[in-house]
Amino acid sequence: MREKFIVRLTEEERNQLKEIITKGKTVVYRIKHANILLAADADGLAWPDEAIAQAYSVHLSTVGSIRKRFVEQGLEAALERKKQEKPSHEPVFDGASEARLIALSCSKPPEGRSRWTLRLLADKVVELEIVEKASYETVRQTLKKTNSSPILSRNG
Predict the structure, then answer these.
(1) Closest to 131 (Cα-Cα) out of 82, 155, 96
(2) Which of 85, 138, 148, 150 has the fewest CB atoms lying closer than 10 Å?
(3) pTM, two decimal places
(4) Are 15 and 74 found together in one domain?
(5) How far from 131 is each of 9, 98, 138, CA to CA, in Å?
(6) How far apart are CA 79 and CA 30, in angstroms?
(7) What digits encode the pLDDT tens for the residues 40-83?
(8) In a domain, 68, yes or no
(9) pLDDT over threshold 80, residue 153
């Protein structure tokens, strides 16, 4: 059986959570987490996790993880979303390869072309072995972060 973390709120924490709920001037997940903590409070409502999960339309593990974050890290950590430990996927372009892409996009376009297209750039960075693979959308998103790319400038 998994470990159950007991939530015991102080009067000040309880008032802070009630204020978050009643004001409604914050992101929805903070309000939901505040409701879950109030419902889980051992000195207050003390609902079982199953009832909390059903009442607030969350998974049972969400209730458990909010309890755990409150006990181990405090109120603010429990109100926030869990930070991702590592990205879902590694970025295609790191700093050096991004710089080479920008330099390439600012260079003279291939013979027979008046300018670089995203597809041409994507093919060229793979051909030059700057990155292993890249789609034109990845190239677009990478170049969008810079103001120096002539491919993104518009006339008129």
Answers:
(1) 96
(2) 85
(3) 0.61
(4) yes
(5) 51, 10, 11
(6) 5
(7) 999 999 999 999 999 999 999 999 999 999 999 999 999 999 88
(8) yes
(9) no
